[in-house]
Specification:
Order of helices and strands of chain A: EEEEEEEEEEE
Number of helices of chain B: 0
Largest sheet of chain A: 7 strands, mixed
Largest interface: A-B, 21 and 20 residues
Shape of chain B: globular
Oligomer: heterodimer
Structural class of chain B: mainly beta
Strand content of chain B: over 45%
Helix content of chain A: under 10%
Distance between the termini of chain A: 36 Å
Structural class of chain A: mainly beta
Number of strands of chain A: 11
Radius of gyration of chain A: 13 Å
Shape of chain A: globular
Chain lengths: ~110, ~110
């Protein structure tokens, strides 16, 4: 089945220790998104790629970076995680047409000790 | 700027009964899309239903239907014959002109057996 895969599902890191979350998709969608979601809140868009074009949300901290080496893969790098970065990180994809139905991965829950 | 408001942080319904989740939004656009997404506990976000603003007919997907009132900027979700598997966070979302989703805060739906 075509899908969005996120690895790992759970990630524990130490305060200040860099961490990388990965996302892959078999849907061949041209847009990929990274969201941060804190408990019982709406997802907050961090950035997205339209093909290779990177789009950063204005309020995304510099601590967060992303890479998209090819259509299928996208990475979220957190350079120096703080306690406030503990959250669920959701990857989503879409093929932009007239409407933007986004397909989500299961998420990576990040814990910062 | 567009906003999406879900005024019910939590709703509960008896199994097999009907429940309506509220959503209002604010926009100056005349053509847009609205979505309801479902996020079950520890499971991924999935699209429940989509409504195109230029279509007057309310969208329906099996037990899920919407009441779209364009003039009132209201987009409620009705779930008929509620099932235990319907328990989840439900998010209302508006697609802006940049194809980005503006999310409501979410409504937690509890199904009582």
């Amino acid at each position: 089945d075509a899908m969005v895969i996120q690895n790992p599902r759970y990630q524990v890191t130490q305060f200040g220790k860099p961490v990388t979350l990965s996302c892959s998709q078999t849907l061949n969608h041209n847009v990929m998104y990274w969201y941060q979601q804190k408990s019982s809140q709406a997802p907050k868009l961090l950035f997205h790629y339209y093909d290779k074009d990177f789009n950063n949300e204005a309020d995304t901290p510099d601590n967060f970076q992303s890479r998209r080496p090819n259509t299928s893969f996208c990475f979220l790098d957190i350079r120096s995680p703080g306690l406030g970065d503990a959250a669920m990180y959701l990857c989503a994809t879409s093929r932009v047409s007239s409407y933007n139905e986004q397909f989500f991965g299961p998420g990576t829950r990040l814990t910062v000790l | 700027a567009q906003t999406v408001t879900q005024s019910q942080p939590e709703m509960s319904v008896q199994e097999a009964e009907t429940v309506t989740l509220s959503c209002t939004y604010d926009t100056s656009e005349s053509d847009y899309y609205l979505f309801w997404y479902k996020q079950p506990p520890s499971r991924q976000m999935i699209l429940v239903i989509r409504q195109e603003a230029y279509k007057q007919q309310n969208a329906t997907e099996n037990r899920f239907s919407v009441n779209f009132q364009k003039a009132a900027k209201s987009f409620s979700l009705k779930i008929s014959d509620s099932q235990l598997g319907d328990a989840a966070m439900y998010f209302c979302a508006y697609q802006d002109s940049n194809y980005q989703l503006i999310w409501g805060a979410g409504t937690k739906l509890i199904i009582k057996p």
